[in-house]
Design a protein that fits this description.
Blueprint (H helix, E strand, L loop, with lengths): L3 E4 L5 H10 L1 E4 L8 H8 L4 E4 L7 H5 L6 E4 L9 H6 L3 E3 L6 H16 L2 H9 L20 E5 L3 H12 L3 E5 L6 H6 L2 E3 L2 H7 L2 E4 L13 H6 L5 E4 L8 H9 L5 E4 L10 H4 L4 E3 L8 H19 L16
Bound molecules: glyoxylic acid (GLV).
The site of glyoxylic acid has 6 residues, from loops.
Length: about 325
């Protein structure tokens, strides 16, 4: 008998094709997440779940699903899953790293450039019919080349962003709980510095940490106050890494100059004051959203799910302790 799998929300068709032949598939082919109660009901009796970051797999959900063997997240982040609860129950948790690294770094750099050069503001200005003539000081922004880029979190995406910074001849500082390998530091001309130094010396600060208890609220009022008044904050990691009201406060007070945000504390809600600010570039959590990358993420999630249900170690296992013995 084929294992029963629920795909909780629309994914790219090649992943559905992959799952169709190999599983007894229940596909919720919709762009809307199921409410928690409906999701739980539909997961009952399933061995596999291919879920997305809008699906919450907390301890309560996990304990109500005794048949579940794998939660395959179509995302690199997995803060929507209580991994400890899953591990305790022997449920494999998988994610989709690497395939989205460069696409996400591209987008972090896009936000950086758009915020620095006031691109969205310029576009709005022109469309609103406000362009009357060329002016020496019209929509002047900040230079990117030769500026200092501060990266918080030097994992795969942080490194990919550093590579982009290098192309713009930027000075790249970084902080992390773990120092990068010497060859990486050499290749990317990275300077490993304390977190406070990144905050104080960078013209652009980009966040690339996972959401963990230790990184929740990592950027709050105190950290924003340490940044240069000209600094621009970029967040493509997870919303709760930044205290959004404190960010709005800092921007309103001119403590920092701008922000580029792809993620928010309570998605899809956005702190209302940020919506009013011209010096903030906003995007609806789309950093990994190229067709090619999202297609790869879906297929990878499908492969992880099928491997786990075949009793194999899935290629992108998060709770590796399940297979350590
Ligand atoms: C998207 O935010 C992801 O974690 O893949």
């Amino acid at each position: 008998m084929k294992p029963a799998v629920l795909v909780t929300k629309r994914i790219y068709p090649s992943a559905i094709d992959y799952l169709s032949g190999r599983t007894d598939l229940d596909y919720h082919e919709s762009d809307h997440s199921m409410p928690a109660g409906e999701l739980l009901e539909r997961l009952r009796g399933k061995q596999g779940a291919v879920g997305q970051l809008t699906d919450k797999f907390d301890a309560e959900v996990i304990s109500a699903l005794p048949d579940l063997k794998v939660i395959s997240n179509v995302a690199v982040g997995f803060d929507n899953i209580d991994v400890a609860a899953a591990t305790e129950r022997g449920i494999a948790v998988t994610n989709t790293p690497e395939v989205l690294t460069d696409t996400t770094a591209d987008f972090a750099f896009t936000l950086l450039m758009a915020a620095a050069r006031r691109l969205v503001e310029a576009d709005n200005f022109l469309r609103a019919g406000k362009w009357s003539q060329w002016r020496i000081n019209l929509l002047c922004g900040a230079d990117i080349h030769h500026a200092t880029l501060g990266i918080v979190g030097m994992g795969r995406i942080g490194q990919s962003l550093a590579r982009r910074g290098l192309g713009f001849e930027m000075r790249v500082l970084y902080s992390d709980v773990q120092r990068a390998a010497p060859d990486i530091e050499r290749e990317l001309r990275l300077q490993y510095v304390p977190f406070e130094t990144v905050l104080k010396e960078s013209d652009f600060i980009s966040l690339h940490v996972p959401l963990l208890p230790a990184t929740r609220g990592l950027i709050g009022a105190a950290q924003l106050a340490m940044m240069k008044n000209s600094a621009i904050l970029i967040n493509t990691s997870r919303g709760p890494v930044v205290d959004e009201p404190a960010l709005a406060e800092a921007l309103a007070a001119g403590e920092i100059a701008g922000a580029g945000l792809d993620v928010f504390e309570r998605e899809p809600e956005v702190e209302p004051r940020l919506l009013e600010m011209q010096n903030v570039v906003l995007a609806p959590h789309i950093a990994s959203a190229s067709v090619a990358t999202r297609t790869k993420m879906c297929l990878m999630a499908a492969e992880n799910c099928v491997a786990a249900l075949a009793g194999e170690r899935p290629p992108n296992l998060v709770n590796t302790s399940l297979f350590d013995n």
